[in-house]
Each structure stands twice: as C-alpha cells, then as structure tokens.
Design goal:
It is a single chain. With 178 residues, the chain is an alpha/beta fold. It has one domain. The chain contains 5 helices and 9 strands; from the N terminus they run αβαβααβαββββββ. The termini are far apart.
Length: 178
C-alpha cells in the first residue's frame, strides 16, 4: 500500500483585476478614461514584439481602437515626411506601432513630445520599440545616430501578461510621474 498524499487546493480568489478592481475589458475602458483626462499623458507598451503584438490585438479588438503602423503609414511618401505629415499620419489612431522610423534623427520628429501632443486630443497607446526600465526609455545602442535614452514622466507603462480567462486584464500597469 502506498501512503496517502494530501493535495492542497488554493481557494479561488476571483479573476485578475486591473484598475480599481475592474475586470477586462472594463479595466481597459478605465485606462482610456484615465488617458483622456491626463491631457497629454500617453501609455507605452513595454515588451518584445510577440507579446506587444498580442496586447495590441486585445486592446484593438476588445476596446474597438484603431491601430496605425507608423512605418507603413509614412512609407507612402516619396521623400522624408515633414513633422506635420507625421502628425497627420498618426492623428486618427489610438494605438501606434512600428515607431522605429520616428527615432531616426534625420526625420526631425521628437517622439515623446509628438505622443504627448497626440494624447492631448485623444487617448494614445504606443508600442515603445526599445526597452523601458524604471523611468528610462531606451532605444538602439550608445554611439548610434538613432540612440535614445530618455527619462519618462507622466506616462503609463503597460507590460503584457499572460491570461487564462477572457476577463483577466492582459497587462500590468505602472504609472510614472515626475
């Protein structure tokens, strides 16, 4: 005879919740409300591409948000676009991806101020193409012309997380202030 094993089953603690105890997609709507009231506060998705793409798909699908792939939107220009053309190309979307092109210095578009300007008109969520650690957003390597290392203020950082159920919030949220 084998000894009897005891298996402890953790008690159910309910669905993973987001802002103010809300489940998905209500937490997403609360995030959009927070960004709308933030007058220039945007959200940045900090993740490698597969995870960022999954979160963008959830945000766009569940919250009915328009996505603009900035590189593709600007590729239609025969010459480098002006800062005004960049702003127009980005102005109708709530989610911006493929931002690498905007970090090239020859374009002359300061990315974070552009996102803040767009966020004054509507909630904006952008996929940061580099890494975000603490209050620093980095892109490329030091010494390269497209290298960026900036301090983030008044930004919401979304880090994708795996979910098992449709009502689980698909991200962890960090609010970076002054």
């Amino acid at each position: 005879m084998s000894p009897t094993a005891t298996i402890e089953i953790p008690s159910y603690c309910g669905p993973m919740v987001g802002t103010n105890g809300a489940t998905w997609p209500e937490a997403g709507h609360q995030l959009l409300g927070e960004l709308a009231m933030g007058r220039g506060r945007c959200a940045l998705i900090a993740a490698e591409l597969p995870a960022a793409d999954r979160l963008v798909a959830r945000l766009a699908g569940d919250l009915d948000l328009q996505v603009t792939r900035v590189g593709a939107a600007l590729a239609v220009h025969e010459r480098p676009p002006t800062p005004r053309e960049v702003e127009v190309a980005c102005s109708s979307a709530s989610i911006l991806t493929d931002l690498d092109v905007l970090l090239w210095p020859a374009l002359g578009v300061p990315l974070l101020p552009l996102l803040a300007a767009l966020a004054r008109r509507r909630p904006v969520i952008a996929v940061w193409p580099g890494e975000i650690t603490g209050q620093r957003a980095r892109y490329s390597s030091p010494g390269r012309p497209d290298h960026h290392d900036v301090r983030l203020t008044d930004v919401v950082v979304l880090r994708p997380r795996n979910t098992r159920f449709p009502d689980e919030v698909p991200y962890e949220i960090e609010r970076l202030t002054q």
